[in-house]
Design brief:
Helix 2 (37-47) packs parallel to helix 3 and helix 3 (64-74) packs parallel to helix 4. This protein has helices at residues 14-23, 37-47, 64-74, 89-99, 111-145, 166-172, 184-187, 193-200, and strands spanning 6-10, 30-34, 52-55, 79-84, 103-106, 151-155, 161-164, 206-212, 215-225, 231-239. With 244 residues, the chain is an alpha/beta fold. It folds into two domains: 6-134, Response regulator (Rossmann fold), CATH 3.40.50.2300; 146-239, PAS domain (Beta-Lactamase, 2-Layer Sandwich), CATH 3.30.450.20.
Length: 244
Amino acid sequence: MGEHIRILCVDDEQNVLKSLERFFIDDNYEILCAASGEEGLEIMQKAAPVQIVISDYRMPGMNGVEFLKEVCSRWPDTVRLVLSGYADTSAVVSAINEGQIYKFIPKPWDENELRVAISNSIDRYFLYKKNLQLIGELKRLKDMLDGLPAAVLCIDPDGLIVFINQKGNELFQKEGGLIPGTSNRYALPAEIQPGIDEAAKDKPEISGAVLINNRRFGFKASSLLFPDERRGTILLFEREGRVA
């Protein structure tokens, strides 16, 4: 992953903080501790990036929900967990809704459950970062491709349509339009599926022709590398005779 993992533990009870430090002693994480939400925010400011925050719910002054709500606002990529012995349904709902926590772990914690939660939190953190990168790349791609006279579609490695430019929307409008997140196998003509599959395998550019709205279009399917190193497909459609 290439990024040093920092975990911030926030609890007003020193014995809990020491227990968490001992729990992570054999892991290659940097463990930061704070005795209050206010101190936790100061550490977040100085030590960023902090990938994971584990916070108690009931603390004097700024409680866990208030603290995590502020973390969510200022560092939205940080994965937030609540660790608390305060078993109150309304508290859990409040933490989820306001602090947008990933997981609520009861005290005393189960070591296996906590270890799995931390592992999943790390995966979630890096997935969030990749998604942000992908969104930024797709926005730049959209700005560039909306100006093209050809219809352009991008299909992710899972076969979902993740981008369609303005000409693409116009082309497929009579068939109900294409919605990002739709499987290409349901939304696009069957004749071009082999080209999509081959392009995703990083094969040479595939070209052919297909009927759309009773008009004949030439198409090209090329490999598209995504941030997670998997390959999807970029499709280009033009009226036949105009695709080189």
